[in-house]
Design a protein that fits this description.
With 514 residues, the protein is α/β, with parallel strands linked by helices. The protein is 49% helix and 14% strand. Strands 3-2-1-11-12-7 form a 6-stranded parallel beta sheet, with helices on both faces. A 4-stranded antiparallel beta sheet has the order 5-4-6-8, covered by helices on one side. The chain has a 3-stranded mixed beta sheet with strand order 14-13-15. The protein binds 5'-O-[(L-methionyl)-sulphamoyl]adenosine (MSP).
């Protein structure tokens, strides 16, 4: 029996101070696409998401909503879970930092840090931004605010510190020995220069509020929310039971997906905490960019927050999934523009892929007795097109390993274009009269190319891909990447169901009403 390689992928855990928006949807979706891709590629995948429920920011939001923090977090956490479900995200575990398993894990990690001599009691005096849940040095402030624009407050209280300053060389050595541990490359360089510029010890406990995990043996202190939050990734695989089957199988995580704003926490603090506790750091952390809305920064005060659920209701789930991962080079910032979304729906989906499938499958239904046609010998053009479809998976694996979703989709769409060019050149509608056996071959080639396209778009658009593959009467267990290539080509003569369009064009409601 072959042993399936494990793949553990995580989203950040989301603050429950506010309802989910497009940024949260984006991070989770990108992980879902990778999780699905790796599953289809035969890996033993574990996909984790969840909510970050402690800290001052959440405590304040609960108070503003007139609820006690637990009732408040129960409500908002459920919204995040519902969003992930509505986006058809195939997560295996949804962690909440208010769960008992997590308190146990945080306290165990803390004790490891103490045992290793990396925690000491001192007092903190400095600036704190509740919005970022981050400490800032005087020198970092810009016009009296955090560099992120968040308001800061002066904090002076007893605090435990983590000896981060002692980890500089070991962190740099780790980055050096693991060139792929941070992506994209430019972000990796930023992290390295930040660490090279010198690290200060980090305040890791607070005494001025209560909503968090108590420090073992000194419950007047609550653990700093980032220490608590980052620990979720190991809690979910069974920490502190490091010898458990689960922990050994999935840790270290293969990928922490994060937004660019929280990369430092995930590559400097987290790695130092883990190394100090004798736990291996994650294999890779990738930082994606931020979305703006029609050119403007997205913010509640500007009132331009994009609700992903509304978008899905208006445009359909798979088109939204496709757009978010196709429109912007993953890792760069991007702009959300409605007209671009509509353009992609009508061009890439309806015209290019949708029409290809619809044209081919309806010709098969009408002219081939509603069954997979029987091919004759393949011409050079047939072999070229089939060859590009067969070769796609290797190219996609390379792009997905770099989280280059946009490139993966571009590559799939070059085959869509090749197939559309081929159909125009071969003109099966003419062959129908002049050379029916050749028409059967052309439609066979196209059907098998559509099979490849359907299988390969599954991670991005699971619903639409399933419709395409259903129309080819492909069994559920014939949809994995191990079925790509000529060895599992469509069986001639198999009866096919009636074709139906998969990607409707978007017609604006006012135009539709005319
Ligand atoms: N709770 C912390 C993460 C702890 S992980 C151990 C947190 N939560 S968050 O809810 O504020 O943000 C979660 C993610 O949403 C981040 O990766 C962030 O980059 C992403 N986004 C928030 N706004 C965004 C955009 N406008 N565009 C893209 N992603 C953005 O940080």
């Amino acid at each position: 029996m072959s042993v399936r390689r494990s793949y553990f992928i995580t989203t950040p855990i989301y603050y429950v101070n506010d309802s989910p928006h497009i940024g949260h949807a984006y991070t989770t979706l990108s992980c879902d696409v990778l999780a699905r891709f790796m599953r289809l590629d035969g890996h033993d995948v574990r996909f984790l998401t969840g909510t970050d429920e402690h800290g001052q920011k959440v405590e304040k939001s609960a108070a503003a909503a007139g609820l006690d923090p637990q009732a408040f977090t129960d409500r908002v956490s459920a919204e995040f879970k519902a969003l992930a479900e509505k986006l058809n995200c195939s997560f295996d575990d949804f962690i909440r930092t208010t769960e008992a398993r997590h308190t146990r894990s945080c306290q165990a990690l803390w004790q490891k840090l103490v045992a290793h001599g990396d925690i000491y009691l001192g007092s903190y005096a400095g600036w704190y931004a509740v919005r970022d849940e981050a400490f800032y040095a005087e020198s970092e402030l810009v016009g009296g605010k955090a560099p992120t624009g968040a308001d800061v407050e002066w904090v002076e209280e007893p605090s435990y510190f983590f000896r981060l300053s002692a980890w500089q060389d070991r962190l740099l050595a780790f980055y050096d020995a693991n060139p792929e541990c941070i992506g994209p490359r430019a972000r990796r360089n930023e992290v390295i220069s930040f660490v090279k510029s010198g690290l200060h010890d980090l305040s890791v406990s607070r005494t001025s509020f209560k909503w968090g995990v108590p420090v073992p043996n000194d419950p007047a202190h609550i653990m700093y929310v980032w220490l608590d939050a980052l620990t979720n990734y190991i809690t979910a695989v069974g920490y502190p039971d490091e010898t458990s089957e689960m922990f050994r199988r999935y840790w270290p995580a293969d990928l922490h997906m994060v937004g660019k704003d929280i990369l430092r926490f995930h590559t400097v603090y987290w790695h130092a905490f883990l190394m100090a506790a004798g736990v291996a750091p994650p294999t890779r952390v990738f930082a994606h960019g931020w979305w703006t809305n029609e050119g403007q920064k997205i913010s509640k005060s500007l009132g331009n927050v994009i609700d992903p659920l509304k978008l899905v209701d208006e445009f359909g789930l798979d088109p939204v999934r496709y757009f978010l991962l196709r429109e912007v080079p993953f890792g760069s910032d991007g702009n959300f523009a409605r007209h671009q979304l509509i353009k992609r729906i009508n061009t890439d989906l309806a015209n290019d892929l949708g029409n290809l499938a619809q044209r081919v499958l309806s010709m098969v239904a009408k002219n081939c007795g509603a069954a997979v046609p029987t091919p004759g010998p393949f011409s050079a053009a047939d072999q070229t097109l089939l060859g590009t479809a067969h070769g796609l998976i290797d190219a996609l694996r390379a792009e997905m390993a770099q989280q280059a979703f946009h490139r993966a989709l571009e590559l799939i769409w070059t085959v869509v274009s090749d197939a559309n060019r081929y159909i125009d050149e071969q003109a099966p509608w003419t062959l129908r009269k002049t050379d029916p056996p050749r028409m059967a071959t052309v439609l066979y080639v196209l059907s098998d190319v559509i099979r490849h396209l359907g299988i390969l778009v599954q991670p991005f658009m699971p619903g639409a891909a399933a419709k395409i593959l259903d129309q080819l009467a492909l069994a559920g267990d014939a949809r994995g990447f191990d079925r790509l290539g000529p060895n599992h080509a469509l069986a001639a003569g198999r009866a096919l169901p009636a074709p139906a369009p998969v990607f409707p064009r978007y017609v604006a409601p006012e135009a539709a009403a005319e």
